[in-house]
Amino acid sequence: MKKLKSRTGSSPQNSKGIPKSIDEYLAGVPEPARSTLNRIRAVIRSVVPPEATETISYRIPAFKYGEVLIWFAAFSDHCSLFPTAAVIEAFKKELAPYRTSKGTIHFPTDEPLPTPLLKKMVKARVAHVENKKKR
Considering the entire predicted model, what is its pTM? Predict the structure, then answer.
């Protein structure tokens, strides 16, 4: 899969072309992927604890809650969600309609997002991180 190129010109990215925020990352993503990522972002934000923060990790948007919970990114023919391999394994049956790999789920940008499934996966990821904190 080919990753979309970053914005060029007078962008507010640092000198290496890495966006400093999710808003900067999204500004460089063409439609319809930008709308898909905005929906993914809104779903994640609706589920994570209020203390969770947005960040850029591995040059892509992520949400952090003690550690990175989940990443998401745009590519030339899909948007990806990176919820960790454990989450993908736990929801393997529900993810059957989508292309997946060990740590990635591919969502076509021209199809509706499975919002209830996204929420369940994010909640599972948050629970995993919270359980690790209790140990």
Answer: 0.85
